[in-house]
């Protein structure tokens, strides 16, 4: 008789791979560290190989361990899809949903849409995880996230994409830096020598420059922000100017700062979208979630934040 690894053992293995630390992996699995360690040793004994090299400072997967954990992600993803088949036939959005949200969306959009989601689907247990676009898409591919709320353009691999609405870009600057500022700003009028942008890894940086038609612009490497809030504080300190999406302005990011915001002409905007793995049995549920988000945004009179022109799914 062949003894096969359990799903629990594979969950322990992938958690350790994600977190790189036994304590954090145990916390993520809601077990003690000794329980997780014992489960991994049982898995190694079952397979007859060492998957993880352990010492006090570093957790390192062996080459074979990397192959095994890659397969473990596939097995867990398929197991989740199997469970989703039955959930999809019952009441929609009534179970767990692990949603990734990028940092330039999460604090500005979620407070507006979560009450609507709770009202529409009170049985939904939403688990939120704030991640930058790259790691979020990787987690989606591994199966540790069910869907991701991000901004386009962004290549997220094998996903279905539901565009939700367009989010215009504004130039934010100190009133002392521009005498008699115009009602709007053309992309070619943006001074790249005083442009403050987010650090590498934030999709907003490249998106803002691309949609403004100025991909050649480069921020001062000595003045890069870790968040939109930090960028606004830097502008208030007269270190430069920055590009901010409208949803952050509507959330009050510059209120009380005395700063000025002007729309960038030429349709400069990003598209907020909901994405999930291609072929997911929960696709119909994710579309319902997207519809609630759009309705919540529309109900507030979103201004330049308008429904994406194409409401159809993109692959």
Automatic annotation (TrEMBL):
Gene Ontology terms: cellular component: protein-DNA complex
Residues covered by the HTH lysR-type domain: 5-62
PROSITE patterns in UniProt: HTH_LYSR
Name this protein carries in UniProt: LysR family transcriptional regulator
Similarity annotation: Belongs to the LysR transcriptional regulatory family.
CDD domains, per the entry: PBP2_OxyR
Keywords: DNA-binding, Transcription, Transcription regulation
Species per Swiss-Prot/TrEMBL record: Sandarakinorhabdus glacialis
